[in-house]
Amino acid sequence: MKRSAILGILIGLGVAITLLVSNNIAGIAQALLGAGWGILFVVALHLPQTLFSTLGWRALIDEAKPPKLWLLYRLRWVRESANALLPVAQIGGDFVRARLLAQRGTPLRLAVGSCMVDLSIEMAAQIVFTLLGVGLLLWGPHMGNVIPLAIGTTAAGGLIAVSFMASQRYGLFKVVEPLIARFAGGEKWAFLGELTGLNEAVVAIYRQPRRVWTSGGHHLISWALGAVETLVAMKILGIDATLREAVIIEGLGQAVRGLAFFVPAALGVQEGGYLLICAMFGISPQDALALSLIRRIRELLLGVPGLILWHRMESRHRHLAAGAPKAA
Fold this sequence. Notes:
The protein is an all-alpha fold. 78% of the residues lie in helices and 0% in strands. It has helices spanning 3-21, 25-35, 38-58, 69-85, 92-103, 108-139, 147-169, 172-184, 198-206, 209-236, 243-259, 269-279, 285-327. Helix 6 crosses helix 11 (243-259).
């Protein structure tokens, strides 16, 4: 594990623990106990969200015989699990799902290309959803002067998303390919030779606007379902909230997480963001942190099985690879 990752985890964990301890941790625990089995319902609500995210990814895979939806759903599950629970930046899981997809027959350049474009479109859809939240914030009542913060966060996220998409569309990987080819010359990194033509694969996706818009539509639905998940979580905590407030909290919360993509699992960042955003609607710090912890619990309950699934898929691939020469 890199020192930077360890440092990020320690700082994030320290911030999160400080926020919990300084905001009546006993009251937060009591709120979670009061939610009871309702937390499992919130966890289940995330499954349709993962499905629509998977459909968004599937729309970008341009193969004569595309992978089955169930396979892509499991890979998306592994991706979310790795991003939530492993000490990596929040894009590490995208490389994991690309690797697993390539192991199952998709050319590596197409697997990586589809994952990178899918990540960009998902970011763009998240900005659109956050803009909806900002619009609702401006339209209705709220507490505190947080409009500049909301607009600034959204604008920064939008700039990152647009820059990433534009760089991909206009040749980012064309610059990277010579470096890949240099590494591929060594025996240890020979597999990188399969990435030859990555830029062409990425640009080819962007040249099919129907695929791009279809993917974006599915991802936007996925973000909207996240607001439903947030609304139900607030209800089981006894918070008197509306769908408008849930959309704003989910939209701005995801924008904050997106800006902190380099922080493993957005530790500390998510908790601080929820405190600020929920305060706009008079939600107490205890309830705001309990709401954040429900998301953490969901990530844990779905993430551990996801990591186990990843291990099993890798083990099965190694077993088949070892047996292939014998079978021949």
